[in-house]
Specification:
Strand order of the largest sheet: 3-6-8-10-12-14
Helix content: 10-25%
Structural class: alpha/beta
Number of helices: 3
Strand content: 25-35%
Largest sheet: 6 strands, mixed
Radius of gyration: 19 Å
Distance between the termini: 52 Å
Length: 198
Amino acid sequence: MGNPQILLLVPYGLVVLLHFSCFLKLTSSSTSNFTDQTALLAIQSKLTFDPTETVLGGNWTTNTSFCDWIGVSCGNRRQRVIALDLSFMGLQGTIAPHVGNLSFLVSLDLRNNSFSGFLPNEISRLHCLKVLMLYANQLEGNIPPTLYRCEKLEIISLAINKLSGHIPEELAFLPRLEQLFLGHNNFSGGVLLRSPGS
């Protein structure tokens, strides 16, 4: 007898056929908080300077639960990371793409640091994300056009960086977006504004 298969119906009329073993792997991995610890350690590894050594050498160690690490907040039910607040810590480095593996993240706040490099496309995988605060850093490059996939976003603040290129039109269609701060960058063009109630 062959491997059992599961037929999944997903939005937009797509049909996905998975082997049962793959389906079990997906569901079991989604409940493991080991993914969150690995993602946080990857974020830590991209830091090059931490004036207080809080993240680089102090509190962020595997000797303690990552839910007790400074700047990390976990949900009570699943013990998964729901907020990462490393604001005003004088940190330098790049934002690791592994941030996209914090699948329960609701708030990402890295403002007022010296993060450089590009905004990772992987942020678009954070489907629970409501708040994205990255202002007052040294980020460059484009805003990932796939950011519109974070449909729960209510606040985006990317002001005071070195971002450039066109502002993705898709941002105007985020259904819950209430605040968008993009000033003091090097963007070309503007952003299409939604009319009230649209």
